[in-house]
Amino acid sequence: MIIESIPEAIVVADRDARIRMTNPAADRIYSRAVHPGMDAEHFAALHLCHPGLDPCPPDDLPLVRSARHGEIIQGREFAILGAEGELRDLVADSAPIIGSDGQRIGAAGVFQDLTGRREAERALRESEERFRGIFERAGISIVLADTAGRILRVNPAFQKMLGYSADELQQMTILDLTHPEDAAAALAHFQGTLAGRHETDLMQKRYIAKDGRTVWGQLTTSLLRGPDGEIRFLIGMIEDITDRKRDEELRRQAFDQIERNMEQFAILGDHIRHPLQAILARADLMEDEGTAEKIREQVRRIDALVKRLEEGWIESREIREFLRRNELA
To answer: How many domains does the chain have?
Structure first.
């Protein structure tokens, strides 16, 4: 029989609300036998009425009201205590049974266990609350967009980063905020993500803030799919790396200046040595050997200083190459 295999509890009572028939699901849901002959008072004692979770009065149960008064009850919720003391949520529908003579002869009730659904709903709510807390309080910018690139939701960090309000941003697309020079690369990245070439991806791009500032961001994009596997949304997490980019540019400029200085030092060394050679040649032709030797000594001192400068240039070049190899330059 179908009634024996369905997962909902089926309980049939006579017009005095005495139990006459149950299916196996009733014993499973109630965690105890609901046997024929059980009267309304004993059956009611199995139930706890919301919100106080006190035992339900017999006349408050849907099955009893349908059996004794002919009422049709739908969607009545209450709880039961299982055999091990666990609380389970039920929803009940009941209706009177009318005999061939048109008179009420009893009632039938259908009881559905909502515990699993309620637990899933509670877990979902808790998960949503955790995500909402992370979304709102995160120090990193978070953006939710649809597959057309329209901005659906942003967190306070993203609003602060670009200076727009949430309402303003929700009227814009991702490309509206992208620096014109990065627009083509950003569009290709967006299309590649939608094409499924990567579930998550990382890129650096520039944004234009409301006040016209250029803001560098490191963007990590992830896909959010529906139950059917289709892409529904994209979520982007953006780290503001403007300061890092500025530091990198200053470092690059500093090393470029060192490079130019080294070239100038090399030229300066040549400019010093050539006259020194001429001075030494003149000293060799002098008749006053004492004076000539003094000149030679000064030339040697100057040459030693130039050599020390050259050694410093070589050391600076080696340090620079080391820093570049280790991505510090």
So the answer is: 3
DSSP letters, 138-162, are -SSEEEEEETT-BEEEE-HHHHHHH
CB atoms within 10 A of CB 285: 7
181-224 pLDDT, tens digit each: 999 999 988 888 888 776 567 889 999 999 999 999 999 888 88
The length of the chain is: 329
Q: Is 17 helix (H, G, I), strand (E, B) or coil?
A: coil
- From first CA to last CA, the distance across the chain in angstroms is 81
Q: Is the pTM of this model over 0.70?
A: no
SS3 278: helix
Radius of gyration over every alpha carbon of the chain, rounded to an integer in angstroms: 43
Q: Are 109 and 62 within 8 A, CB to CB?
A: yes
- Where residue 301 falls among pLDDT bands split at 50, 70, 90? confident
Cα–Cα dist 219/233, whole Å: 16
Q: Facing residues of 205 across strands?
A: 217
Residues 176 and 198 in one domain: yes
- Cα atoms in the 13 Å half-sphere on the side-chain side of 244: 9
Domain region containing 69: 2-120
